[in-house]
From TrEMBL:
Residues 231-376 form the Acyl-CoA dehydrogenase/oxidase C-terminal domain. The keyword Protein biosynthesis does not apply. The keyword Oxidoreductase applies. One of its GO terms (molecular function) is flavin adenine dinucleotide binding. It comes from Billgrantia desiderata. Residues 32-116 form the Acyl-CoA dehydrogenase/oxidase N-terminal domain. Keywords: FAD, Flavoprotein, Oxidoreductase. This is Acyl-CoA dehydrogenase. The lineage of its organism: Bacteria, Pseudomonadati, Pseudomonadota, Gammaproteobacteria, Oceanospirillales. Transmembrane segments: none annotated. Belongs to the acyl-CoA dehydrogenase family. Coiled coil: none annotated. It comes from the Bacteria. Residues 120-213 form the Acyl-CoA oxidase/dehydrogenase middle domain. Its cofactor is FAD.
Amino acid sequence: MSDTLELSQRAITATETILQKYGVDGEKAGAGFIAEVLETLAANELLTFGFSDPLQTGPQPGDMEKACTVIRLLAERSGTLATIYMVAGLLGPLCLSYAGTVAQKKALLPRVAAGELQLAFALTEPGAGSDAAGITTQATRWDDHYVVRGEKIYITGAATADLILTVARTTEGGAKSYGILLVPGGAEGLSVEPLSKLSGNAYPSCRVMFEEVLVSESGVLGGEAGVNSAWPQLRKTGTLERLIVAAMACGFADAATNRALQFVQERHQFGQPLRDFQAIQHTVVEMSTLATGMRLFLEDAIRQHAEGHDATQAISMAKYFCSDQLQKVVAMAARVMGGRAYFDFEPVSRLYREAPFCLYAGGTIEVQKMLIARSLGI
């Protein structure tokens, strides 16, 4: 318990330091905003979980509980910060930890842990989102290099990434033969176009074009053995991404519920506190109940993963339930706030814009239902 409290305090300290300077959405962000966010997280030892250890493979006991604790606290305060942490501080290093060679991990993971290396993960394509098996980006062997051709879209962090972990179909394998290539952010033939989003534009999501981009043999994650073997690693990382998104959703729901509670305590209408109106009471009770249910789903998924069980079903259920119920929680918060929720100065308006992210990140609700059905044998 003391470890969790100490970790929580470090996360809060890091968040407050950044928000005081840049604002909740990073609206005051300059060119060095993302780098400073990662440096601040690193200074508070929030990028040093077990999967940042070059001698380990994948998360160690307690790592995902810690990661989910941090991202919940960040999301409660800023979706932008939570997304930076998720992409560059969790998903990127998790992928390196699972799939990289020892030499690659020794070269890269300490720099991630120090906040010195920005990573992005490029999987989604215009014609292949949840259907990851449908990707068409290709990496073709040419002498001692690979030539990468294709297009990725909605790639968060690509505009400033030092390395873009790019999933590409290899020509040497079968239907599910993919490699993950470490494409330098400034590579010749690489073009990155930021796309305007509903929220979080201080950390852009981008269209990424690969036009004859050369990547050396050493830039294949996992080395020669990794050329056609990315699929199992993608499944592992994808499962943990769903867990992380569920935790983010819980942070958003906590923020919406706490803000509604604060507002009904302060606001008066028709000569009495808003909290005395039964309709308002019922709305806030429903919000609190849903937020508690989301947290319980998340905790069960974390527990099953920590105990070494096949947590696919529990994690998909948590991701499905938390992201879906979050939309209801923020909508109810907006109704409690009345017209105020329509304006940018009200925190609930930010949450209303940020909440839909959880519906899609880590796979849509419909994909989660497919995974759950498969786990049930139907």
